[in-house]
Amino acid sequence: MPHYALTIGVATLLDAEEVMILATGHQKALAVQAAVEGPINHLWTVSALQMHRHFMLVCDEAALQELKVKTVNYFTNLEKHAIHSVL
């Protein structure tokens, strides 16, 4: 349980130039699924970030457990292409 937290509105979040969220552990898997595969809805505020132009979601394997294999493969390939374009 965190000792400190920051709460901001969705509009403020969407106005940010860049947004990066770090999700670790299986307890975050449903939130990751909602952020990536689910529809945008008020039950999962993180889903609104699907509309953000520069949103990065960084996850460990445990946080990916609820995603479809096809989704994981898609983003893994995007990451590989991004890395190769820099090298």
UniProtKB/TrEMBL annotation:
Protein name: Glucosamine-6-phosphate isomerase/6-phosphogluconolactonase domain protein
Gene Ontology molecular function: glucosamine-6-phosphate deaminase activity; identical protein binding; isomerase activity
Family matches, as InterPro entries: Glucosamine6P_isomerase (IPR004547), NagB/RpiA_transferase-like (IPR037171)
GO CC annotation terms, alphabetical: cytoplasm
Source taxonomy: Bacteria, Pseudomonadati, Pseudomonadota, Gammaproteobacteria, Pasteurellales
Signal sequence interval, chain numbering: none
Keywords tagged on the record: Isomerase
Gene3D superfamilies: 3.40.50.1360
UniProt GO BP: glucosamine catabolic process; N-acetylglucosamine catabolic process; N-acetylneuraminate catabolic process
